[in-house]
Amino acid sequence: MIIFGVAALAACHLAGVILGDLLGSLLGVQSNVGGVGFAMLLLIFATDWMRRTGRLPAISEQGILFWSAMYIPIVVAMAAQQNVVAALAGGPIAIIAGVGATVACMALVPVVARIGGQDAPLPPLTVQEA
Amino acid sequence: MEIVELLAKNGLVFAFVVIGVVMWISYQLSDKLSAGRLHGSAIAIIIGLFLAWLGGTITGGSKGLADLTLFSGIGLMGGSMLRDLAIVSTAYGVDMREIRKAGVAGATALALGIIVSFIVGALVAAAFGYTDAISMATIGGGAATYIVGPVTGTALGASSEVIALSVAAGLLKAVLVMIGTPFVAPYIGLNNAKSAMAYGGLMGTTSGVAGGLAATDKRLVPYGAMTATFYTGLGCLMGPSVFYLVLLAMFGN
Q1: CB contact, 8 Å: A58 with chain B?
Q2: ipTM for the assembly
Q3: I need a surface site. Which of A37, B68, B129, B143 has the fewest CB within 10 A?
Q4: Which of B23, B139, B191 sits opposite A73 (nearest CB)?
C-alpha cells in the first residue's frame, strides 16, 4: 500500500528531527542540528533494508516518490512566502554583508570540491527526470 | 466574497492549483523564451519570490504571499514541515558511497562556510562603524543565515537594530542563493554529488540551497541538503561562543 511508503518516510523524518533536536540540546544550542540530514540517512538505510528483505514493493515506493516529485512545487511555495521585502530593505550593511558572504562562499565551492579528487559530472538529464 | 472565503477555507488545495499554474507558466516561458536554457524550475522560483515581494508589499507582513488570507495555504504547502518531508524524500535511492566519499569535503565546507560568512559579515559591520564585538558577531551571524544572526544577537544582547540588520543580510543571502545558483553552477563545477555537498556546506541557508539546487539539477538536492542541515545549528553554536570571544579579544567591546 502507498501509505506504507509515506509512513516510512514520515517516520524517518520525525526520528531524524528528534535526533537533531537532541544533538542541539546536548550542544546547548536553541536550534536543530542536522535533523533533516539524519532523517535522510535513516531513510537511505531503512529503505535499503526494506528493499533487500522484500518489504518495499513498488506500490509502497510510490508513496516516497510522490513526495520527491512534489519537491520542486513545494520549494516554489516556499519561495512565495519568503520575507523578500525585508531582504531588500536592509540598507547597505545588510546588502554588502549578504552579497559578500554569498559570493565569497560560492567562490570556494571548486576549491572544497577538489578535496579527495575531482568528481565526474552527472550525466545529462533525460526529459522525464527534468 | 463567498468564493474568496471558500478558497481560503480550502487553503492547501487552492495552493496546489496556484503553484500548478505558476509551474505551468514557468515551463512554458522556459521552453518558448529561453529555448530550455533557463530551467522551468528556476523561473518558477523567481516568480515565487516576486509573488512574495508583492504579498509583503501589500500586507506589510513577513510571510510574503502567505500573509494574504486567500493564499494562506501557500504557507502550509511551502512551510518547513512539508518542505523538510520533501527534502528527506529526495534522499530515496541516494548512493551511500557517494556521501561517504564526499564526507571530508562536506565537513570542510561546513567549517569554511561558517567561518568565511562570519568574517565577511564582521568586516562589513566594522566598515560601517559597528566596531563592538557584539554587533560584529551578530551581523557576522546574519551573513551565515537569518537564524544564526538573531540567535547570536539575542544571546549576546545586541541592539534590535543590529539584529534586524543581521536578519536582512541572511534573508538576502537566501534569496540570492535561490536565484543565483543555476547561473553560477557552470562556473563553479556544481554538477556532481561531491560539489553539491560542498555547496550545501558552504552556503548553509536551507531554503537557499533547497531552492537553488532545485533550479539547477534536482538530482543534486539530497547531497546539498545533507550538509546544509548542519550549518545553522553549528553556526548558532559558534556565533555567541568562539566567534564572539575571538572578536572580543581582537577588538574589545
Answers
A1: no
A2: 0.90
A3: B129
A4: B23
